[in-house]
Amino acid sequence: MNNFKFQVPSFKLIVLVLCILYSGQAFAELTVTANHSHINVDFFYHGSTMSIRGTSDLGVDLVIKLTSPEGHEVLKEKGKVGGVLWMNVATLKLDHIPGMYFLHSTKKVEDILSTEEQDKYQIGYPALQRHVDMSPVANEEEKTRWFNEYVRFKEDSRVYSTSIGKISVSPQYGKDNYYILTEWPYQVPPGNYTVTVYAVKDGKVIETAQSNIVVEQVGIVKSLAGMARDNGALYGVIAIIAALGAGIGVGLIFTKGGGAH
Amino acid sequence: MYLYLPVALTSINILIPVGLGLAVGLLSGLFGVGGGFLMTPLLIMFGIPATVAAATDSNQIVAASTSGTYAHWKVGNVDFKMGLILLAGGLVGGLVGVQGIKVLQAMGNADFVIKITYVLMLGIVGTYMFIESISSMRKTKVEEVKQEKESALTRFLKSLPLQTHFEKSGVTHSMLVPLIFGGFVGILAAIMGVGGGFLMVPVMVYILRMPMHVVVGTSLFQILFNCIEVTFLQAYTNHSVDFILAVLLLLGSTVGAQVGTVFGRKLKGEQLKVFLAIIVLVVTVKIVFDLTLTPSQLLGQAGGH
Q: Is A31-216 assigned to CATH 3.30.70.20?
């Protein structure tokens, strides 16, 4: 009997320890799932929506970054010539810059992350600006000016965007469930994209989780794009023959129809 | 309904390209211009990348000008002999013009020269055509019959060798005249990155003295061949022709060209010239505004003109 009495508190202790261990595991695990890991671009593709959900530590801040791999971009700079006329005056080259960049955060990035951490994970436009190689820019002021113009250009093209406070977070079973529904614009070209979620606490990223998205052309769209790229001569000849055929065809139809007038 | 464009990598409401095609095709059939100076900026406005817009427009002009040439040929308004000589000159001029761009780019600020050339050409051609056709419309019939006095230029043109009669146009010129002026238009068109119909039409009307209705048909005939060449080169070297966009555009433009031809036959040559002059002047004013008003974006895609 004594043994039994001794075992009851011991059992409770084990359960308590297990509970702490179990819930501790739930706190530490940051997960991310996007509803589409593969987006097919067919003839009727007009963009999509992307829901991203997962679990995180209770009470941490979250940053969700959707981005394409870094690349190279060449754009024309407009400037005034002779103090009156606006025209292309120079070519701006950017290296190590993602073509697509969507950033969502629970709070303003500058308020929850140190500059070092922003730079380390390239979170936020200022971090991107510090990371990118731009030429020709004479000084930091000019770099800021043209980087801001670049962001404006990309936002207008709907391939760059940021939002604060759109991630909904609800606590459940000792962890936070987060969710965001974002638009996936049709302007985002085919390619490989990464969704990265950062759990942030005390100015630092404490955990990250990643998921991949592939946007791929399929069917006739894929065949035509492939032919235009790989077999330009044949593609050109077909395009010309089709145009000639259409022109003559419509001409014949109208001539027949015109006979009635 | 939206369709995804495989080369432009964007989605577009099909009513937009079909509608644009119809409107610009109508102008083609009426005035004998390809309409690239209108279509390319409009396509860019609707989110098509500049290089794809220009290349695909050439593809659809092949269809619109085939349709227009066919319609004009049926009513006897195409001077094939004149068209072929202008075309030969235009092709050589185009090659020279492409080299000219390289020289301008090497000198720096090519865009400035190109834009200024464009505005001046459009402005001068539009104003001259407008004033001339308005004053001809005011002339009495008696005055119209009166032979115009021979200018020094006319006398010089008549003194050139290889004189030949162009039956369809009812004019006699040295073969060198259309060849040289075709080449001149070809150079300017290549530098400006446009088809050059708006320059070729005034050359045929005022220098070659061809009747306006034959001018429209003949201009379309030579535009057809120019655009076949440009479409092939764009598809082969830049991979920038979007076949689906071209099909949507030509659905409208081939019909538009036919309707334009029918309308054109109901208008007098002078009326056609006035309308074309007005369109050219409106485009000039638009470009001047674009050049002088602060743009909403200070960065743009490379490859546009």
A: no
pLDDT tens digits, one per residue of A61-89: 999 999 999 999 999 888 888 888 888 88
Instruction: Check A187 against B304: CB less than 8 A apart.
Output: no
Q: What is the pLDDT of residue A152?
A: 95
B266 — contact with chain A (CB < 8 Å)? no
Q: How far apart are CA B14 and CA B73, in angstroms?
A: 31
B70 near A CB under 8 A: yes
Lowest mean pLDDT among B25-29, B194-198, B228-232: B194-198
- Residue ranges of the domains in chain A? 1-29, 31-216, 223-252
Please name the member of A41, A47, A153 whose beta carbon is closest to the beta carbon of B297: A153
Complex ipTM: 0.85
pLDDT band at B208 (very low <50, low <70, confident <90, very high): confident
Q: Across the interface, which of B4, B109, B292 has its CB nearest the CB of A84? A: B292
Is A90 part of the contact surface with chain B (CB cutoff 8 Å)? Answer: no
Measured between beta carbons, which residues in chain A are less than 8 angstroms from residue B12?
none
Distance CA B17, CA B42 (A): 10
* Chain B touched by A13 (CB under 8 Å): no
Q: Strand A204-217 to strand A38-41: parallel, antiparallel, or no bridges (unpaired)?
A: parallel
Contacts of residue A259, defined as CB under 8 A and 6 or more positions apart, other chains included, come to none
Q: What is the pLDDT of residue B172?
A: 87
pTM given for the model? 0.82
pLDDT in tens, A14-43: 544 444 444 444 445 899 999 888 999 999
pLDDT in tens, A136-168: 999 999 999 999 999 999 999 999 999 999 999
Which A-chain residues 123-152 have CB contacts (< 8 A) with chain B? 146, 149-150, 152
pLDDT digits (tens, 9 = 90+) for B115-134: 788 888 889 989 988 998 88
CA distance B89 to B87: 5
Question: Which residues in chain A are contacts of B68 at CB distance < 8 A?
Answer: 247
